C-alpha cells in the first residue's frame, strides 16, 4: 500500500530539474513571494485533473491534501488571490516551453499503435479548433460582434497522437494564416483539410522539402496534363489519379509547379473527396488513406474539450487563458503516457474519470493502472482502500 496519493505519484513523473532550468531562463520566479512556478504548475495541473471550476476549487482542493503537499513539492496550499494574481502575471510561455520539454520524454511513451503506412515520411495532421469565450468577460478575444474566441492551430504527430506544435491566436485568424508559422521537417508529409488550400502556403511547404496531402476547393481551375492508370481489381474507390497544372493566373503565380490530383470515393459519407499533393511516387490509395487518417486530429480535439478543463476558464486575462490551455496540453500528455504504461486497456475517458474520483487516494499508481478492478489483500482497513471502489 502506497503512502503517497495518486496525484503526488503522477506529479512525480514530471522532470522538476528541466522545469527549474526553464524557470531560471525565463526568470518566472522573480518577485514570486512564496508562490513559485512549481507550485503554480501543480495548482494548474490539479485544476485539470480535478476539473476545478474556480480558483476557490483549486485552493480548497489542495488545502484538503494537508500533510501530502510535501510530496507534491509545495509548502502550503495557495490562496485564491495568489492563484489569480500569478495567472495574470506569470508568463504563460513557461508552460508552453515545459510542454515541449515533456513531449521529448513522456511523448515517447505515449505513442500507440496506428495503421502503419509503407512510407518513410513522418506524418503530421494539421487543423484548428475554436474555443468560445464570453466577449463581455474576455474583451481581448475578438471574434464576432457578440462572441469571443481563441483558435488553437494544431500540428498533430500521427505516431504519438500528440501536438508537435500549437499556435494559439484570436478567433478571427483564418486556418491557413495560422499555419504559416508551423515548423517544417524536411521529408515529412502534412495532411490537411480544404481550409489549407492556400497556394502560397503550399509553395512554401514544397520549397522546404515537405510533402502535403490537402483536400482542394471545388472552384479550383486546372488542366489535366496526364492521367495515371488506375488499379485494375483492388482499390476500386480510387476514381481519378492525374497530373494537373493550375490555370488561374494568380494561383499559378503562387504555385507554378505541377500537382497530382487524386479523387477518392468516401463510402461512409457517400461523397467524392478530391485531393491535391506534390507527392508523385506513392500509390493513389496511400494518398487517400493518409487523408482518411486526418480524423485522428478531430478525435484529439474532442478529447481535450470533453475530458479536460478548457471550456470554462478560472481567469479572464489572456495570460490566464493561455496558461490554462497549455496546462491542459501538459495534462493530456501525462494521461496518454500513463495509458501507454498501463497493462489494463484503459479508455482515456475512463482513466480521467477514475483519477478524478481517486485523486487523493493513497494507492500504488502502477498497480492501480495495471489492475484497477482487482481488490487488494492488504490488512489495512477497508476505509483506506478507496482506490478499489469498483469491483467486477
User: Mean of the pLDDT scores?
Assistant: 89
Q: Based on helices, strands and strand pairing, what is the structural class?
A: alpha+beta
Distance between the termini: 21 Å
| Biggest sheet statistics | 10 strands, mixed
Following the backbone from N to C, one meets helices and strands in this order, namely HHHHHHHEEEEEHEEEHEEHHHHH
Percent helix = 25-40%
Ranges where pLDDT stays below 50 over 5 or more residues in a row are 379-392
Number of helices: 14
CA-based shape: globular
Radius of gyration: 24 Å
Give a count of the beta strands, DSSP E runs of length 2 or more.
10
Beta-strand content: 15-25%
Secondary structure: elements and pairs:
Layout: H1 6-11, H2 16-26, H3 37-49, H4 55-63, H5 69-72, H6 80-89, H7 93-109, E1 123-133, E2 142-144, E3 147-157, E4 162-170, E5 189-192, H8 199-207, E6 211-215, E7 222-227, E8 238-246, H9 249-254, E9 259-266, E10 271-277, H10 284-292, H11 295-307, H12 318-341, H13 348-357, H14 365-370
Parallel strand pairs: 1-5, 5-6
Antiparallel strand pairs: 1-3, 2-3, 3-4, 6-10, 7-8, 8-9, 9-10
Helix pairs in contact: 2-7, 3-4, 3-12, 4-6, 6-12, 7-12
Amino acid at each position: 500500500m502506497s503512502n503517497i496519493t495518486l496525484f503526488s505519484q503522477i506529479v512525480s513523473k514530471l522532470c522538476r530539474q528541466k522545469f527549474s532550468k526553464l524557470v531560471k531562463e525565463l526568470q518566472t520566479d522573480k518577485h514570486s513571494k512564496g508562490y513559485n512556478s512549481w507550485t503554480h504548475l501543480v495548482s494548474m495541473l490539479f485544476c485539470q485533473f480535478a476539473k476545478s471550476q474556480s480558483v476557490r476549487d483549486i485552493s480548497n482542493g489542495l488545502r484538503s491534501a494537508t500533510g501530502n503537499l510535501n510530496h507534491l513539492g509545495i509548502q502550503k496550499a495557495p490562496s485564491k488571490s495568489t492563484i489569480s494574481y500569478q495567472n495574470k502575471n506569470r508568463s504563460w510561455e513557461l508552460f508552453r516551453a515545459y510542454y515541449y520539454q515533456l513531449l521529448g520524454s513522456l511523448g515517447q511513451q505515449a505513442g500507440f499503435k496506428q495503421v502503419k503506412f509503407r512510407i518513410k515520411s513522418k506524418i503530421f495532421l494539421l487543423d484548428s479548433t475554436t474555443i468560445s469565450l464570453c466577449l463581455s468577460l474576455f474583451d481581448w478575444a475578438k471574434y464576432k460582434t457578440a462572441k469571443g474566441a481563441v483558435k488553437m492551430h494544431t500540428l498533430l504527430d500521427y505516431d504519438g497522437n500528440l501536438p508537435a506544435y500549437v499556435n494559439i491566436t484570436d478567433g478571427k485568424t483564418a486556418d491557413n494564416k495560422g499555419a504559416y508559422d508551423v515548423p517544417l521537417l524536411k521529408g515529412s508529409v502534412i495532411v490537411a483539410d480544404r481550409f489549407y488550400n492556400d497556394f502560397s502556403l503550399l509553395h512554401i511547404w514544397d520549397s522546404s522539402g515537405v510533402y502535403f496531402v490537402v483536400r482542394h476547393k471545388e472552384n479550383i481551375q486546372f488542366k489535366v496534363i496526364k492521367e495515371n492508370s488506375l488499379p485494375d481489381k483492388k482499390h476500386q474507390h480510387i476514381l481519378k489519379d492525374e497530373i494537373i497544372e493550375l490555370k488561374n493566373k494568380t494561383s499559378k503565380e503562387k504555385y507554378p509547379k505541377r500537382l497530382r490530383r487524386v479523387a477518392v470515393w468516401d463510402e461512409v459519407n457517400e461523397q467524392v473527396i478530391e485531393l491535391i499533393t506534390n507527392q508523385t511516387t506513392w500509390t493513389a490509395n496511400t494518398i487517400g488513406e493518409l487523408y482518411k487518417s486526418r480524423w485522428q486530429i478531430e478525435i484529439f480535439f474532442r478529447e481535450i474539450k470533453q475530458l479536460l478543463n478548457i471550456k470554462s476558464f478560472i481567469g479572464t486575462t489572456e495570460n490566464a487563458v493561455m496558461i490554462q490551455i497549455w496546462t491542459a496540453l501538459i495534462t493530456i500528455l501525462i494521461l496518454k503516457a500513463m495509458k501507454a504504461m498501463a497493462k489494463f486497456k484503459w479508455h482515456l475517458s475512463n482513466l480521467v474519470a477514475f483519477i478524478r474520483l481517486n485523486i487523493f487516494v493513497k494507492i500504488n499508481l502502477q498497480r492501480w493502472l495495471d489492475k484497477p478492478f482487482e481488490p487488494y489483500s492488504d490488512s489495512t482497513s477497508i476505509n483506506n482502500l478507496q482506490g478499489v471502489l469498483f469491483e467486477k
